[in-house]
Amino acid sequence: MPYMPVSARLACTTLLALGLVACSSRPPVADRPSAGPAAQPVRGGDPFQATSVTIRALGLVGTPYRYGGNTPDSGFDCSGLVTYVFADMLDLRLPRTSRELARVQGPKIAPERLSSGDLVFFGSGADVWHVGIYVGEGRFVHAPSSGGTVRLDALSNPYWQRHYSGAKRVL
């Protein structure tokens, strides 16, 4: 791949993110009635904040993975990436581990209702061991494993489908 200046990469990433955010926006749909009290519709978060988080997360694609890493200079693990992006863009302090992030207050989101900036979780049963940031169009940014880099993946990938354990909206 030919060399591309940082400013050009940032411009391309920004345009991609804005396209993903625009394509993923849809009006809220009321939840189906439940047996209990009337269900409230889950609305998307603040669009400006969601766009900021999405653009920043996409801009970190390619950053090396490092267990315990939480900055672009040191590299990222999955929860380090999430906590860095939300702190950097919104000054929002989130818990440090994927397990703790899964326990954060906020509405749980059905897969068909995901919105940019939502956190997506993966694990086995009740055990959560991975987290990423949903960016729209069925894709999420995450720091997957040792020896890898921060990357953009599809929720439709069979591995991620098999281990998907839910999503939360923190915005």
UniProtKB/TrEMBL annotation:
Gene Ontology process terms (BP): proteolysis
GO MF annotation, one: cysteine-type peptidase activity
Residue segments, region Disordered: 27-47
Pfam annotation, one family: NLPC_P60
NlpC/P60 domain boundaries: 47-171
UniProt keyword terms in alphabetical order: Hydrolase, Protease, Signal, Thiol protease
Signal peptide limits: 1-30
InterPro entries: NLP_P60_dom, Papain-like_cys_pep_sf, Peptidase_C40
Family per record: Belongs to the peptidase C40 family.
Name of the protein: NlpC/P60 domain-containing protein
